[in-house]
């Protein structure tokens, strides 16, 4: 269980975080989103015990993070936005090195490493880290974060710069971690991924939480279901209707904001000689929500 209360972080006199409060249950995926500079990395670094908040309180699984950062780190895996790996080391040696730092026995290191390489579909074949592709390096960094089998994972833009296939496999892997009971907190600019996998979303703007909740809760907050009605008409020169519509790429479109409005609209269009082609229901996406919030 994570309890964050009124977290504030100043860099000099600049408030990068300004009163962040939220709760998160175990075995959940939390997505932290917001425009550039909103405070995502700052929040993640505080949660990973890497920087101290200027004010506020953060308790993770009963551990006060500011007071006992070392206890927190035993059960935490952190993936920075840009991980600097030791380029001249082989993947095997690199993962073994981190296993040793966490005090794991040799046979445990060997087993963990083999399991993680298989799960992440990594086949380093004795290669040095410097010889790997960007996607493979990111996966090695993810494997490193998991060597000591922590219960909490904090990933700063885990899929940034990855091709769609690799990105998808990382996201599927994150889902699997949650299904095995781990809590994952990640920031991302790919909002489709956040929408797809996160149990809870935190939207930051200029260091403040502007919205938080499950996707259905956020949809409710930012406007509910709308209906897009696509239709055809006979002769555009003679077509008249009281319904507001737009023409885009030769397609006629009107939007209804309730089922009653949808019924009225389709009846009016039919009476005016239009033919309904298709009706699509549409929830606001995270992208539309961020757009609405503004920078
Ligand atoms: N070490 C620092 N010293 C001074 N200002 C900083 C420092 N780190 C971050 N900031 C500022 O704090 C604000 C929040 O930065 P942060 O990196 O947390 O945002 P972010 O949401 O992760 O951004 P991005 O999406 O671009 O990665 C920004 O205005 C940034 O310039």
Automatic annotation (TrEMBL):
One of the record's GO molecular function terms: ATP binding
SMART domains assigned: AAA
Identification of the protein by name: ABC-2 type transport system ATP-binding protein
Domain of life: Archaea
Pfam families with a match to the protein in the record: ABC_tran
Keywords: ATP-binding, Nucleotide-binding, Transport
Family per similarity comment: Belongs to the ABC transporter superfamily.
ABC transporter domain ranges (all copies): 2-231
Gene3D superfamilies: P-loop containing nucleotide triphosphate hydrolases (3.40.50.300)
Annotated InterPro entries: AAA+_ATPase, ABC_transporter-like_ATP-bd, ABC_transporter-like_CS, ABC_transporter_ATP-binding, P-loop_NTPase
Organism field: Methanoculleus thermophilus
